[in-house]
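Thread: quick sanity check before group meeting

JM: Hey all, I'm pulling together slides for Thursday and realized we never actually wrote out the predicted structure for the chain we discussed last week. Dropping the sequence here so it's in one place. If anyone has concerns about the input, flag it before I start.
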Amino acid sequence: MHPNRPCSHTAYVANTGNDTVSVIDSSTDTVTATIPVGDNPYGVAVDPPRARAYVTNGSDNTVSVINTNNNQVIGSPIRVGTNPTVVAVDSTRARAYVVNFVDRTVAIINTNNNRVIGPRIPVGASPSAVAVDPPRARAYVTNGSDNNVSVIDTRNNRVVGSPIPVGTDPEGVAVNPSTARAYVTNLGDNNVSVINTSNNTEILPRIPVGSEPSGVAVNPSTARAYVANSNDDTVSVIDTTTNTEILPRIAVGDLPFGVAVDPPRNRAYVTNFLDSTTSVINTTNNAVTSVTVGNNPIGVAAF
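JM (edit): ok, ran it. Output follows.
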């Protein structure tokens, strides 16, 4: 067993344009380290109990592992499927789930030893994102070309039930385990689907947000979800108790994509692909500051 580690108030940003990960100290909103990884890094997720960050290298078909105690890459890159994009970690089960866009599969990494547990799990067409619900032993995968979400039982690593229909071109997904809800951004419909993870059914109506929503993150402490609207350079805030958007939207940088939250510090991090910046939102008053990171940031994780 690994001891629980306190939150470090650190954000990790995958910079696809220059093959690095920027490390942001959220107490000062400054970059404290830049870590070289593989080719075309896309997604990033952290495993706090094991002090590790996992970064998908889309053009290398690998995952790099970072020791978050010293921000050094450890071991050789882990080979997964073709064009890995988003990764999510279930710290309870010591597993990382990697979406392979071209393969239409999910690869599983044992985060105790950083070995792949095979075989890969087939999902739908153009899978783009994954989020885990540890209490219910489920992982949710958005299938962009199928307009649905696959559900994986993480106890036996099998898809369960039929895919859940959502909106057009589902892009991002986030889970709030405490309320048994998953939030799916429908890029083609400019709205968000809400899934009841207790019975894997969609709760209607869908929530209208900004133009071409992509990334989404949930702050369980405040019952808020944050959605990056990639085509209008804003972030929508959703009240998850009523499933309604709280206006006005928050202006951020150019082509916002990834979102992560740091609940103890009341911060949300939004990667701006064309600005090469990360917007830091103070979630108590929605004030925004900007941090310059590497080229074309996409994925972000905070803990």
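AS: nice. Residues 3 and 49 are 6 Å apart (CA to CA). The two ends are 20 Å apart (CA to CA).
JM: adding both to the slides.
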